[in-house]
Amino acid sequence: MRRRTYVIGGIVVLLAALVSAPWAGLQVAAHGHEHEAADAPAVDVVIVLGTEVVSGKPGDRLAGRLRTAAGLVAAGRARRVLVSGDGHGVSGNEPQAMTDYLVAHGVDRSSVIADPYGLDTYDTCARAHRVYGLDRALIVTQAYHLARAVALCRHLGVDADGVYASCDRCSRVTLAREQVRDYFAAGKAVWDLARD
Questions:
Q1: Tag placement on the chain: N or C end, fewer CB within 10 Å?
Q2: Partners of 128 in the beta sheet?
């Protein structure tokens, strides 16, 4: 009975290690490249990752990312904003809603570049480098997502530093759910990198 318990325990530990390895690897890859907005290095472009829009307007998470990006532009830490998301998504046209929000918050429309094919974090980073020619950028998203975004962009040729975005109106339940989702999304990210 004791031997069986040890075997089951060993299998559980091994499975936990296998599931955690992608997440841990992304955390290590992003280490030293995550900043508060006030400490972010100055670059030409800040990338904002899309997420749900509600009735054509950014949801709480997306609004937090966009406010952070607008603040970076206002502070002179970036000159242009690449908004990347699903232009034909179930919740609406993310890049259009993002552009409109930034313009309403003081960013010149001519300084906003919209990528309607940033269907996930990998696509956004790959397209930022391959389509838009970015070699250096800041990338803005919430803390639960930042290490994965930074690690993917850096692996795909963009010397990226991440900036934490707030989510003032997000509930603890929402943030906890997103943290769990991102933990498991790390495996997909590593798989995407392996398959290019």
A1: N
A2: none
Partners of 114 in the β-ladder: 83
Helices (H), 31-171: 60-74, 94-104, 121-130, 143-155
Domains located in the chain, CATH noted: 2-195 (3.40.50.620)
What is the CB-side half-sphere exposure of residue 110 using CA atoms within 13 A? 0
Helix, strand, or coil here: 67? helix
Q: Is 57 helix (H, G, I), strand (E, B) or coil?
A: strand
Cα torsion for 76, 80, 82, 87, to the nearest 10°?
A: 120
Instruction: Give this prediction's pTM.
Output: 0.85
Q: For residues 148 and 26, is the Cβ–Cβ distance under 8 A?
A: yes
Q: How far is CA 112 from CA 38, 101, 168, 185, in A?
A: 21, 11, 24, 28
In degrees and rounded to multiples of 5, residue 54 shows phi and psi of -125, 115
Q: Give backbone dihedrals phi and psi of 79, rounded to 5 degrees, phi first.
A: -105, -30
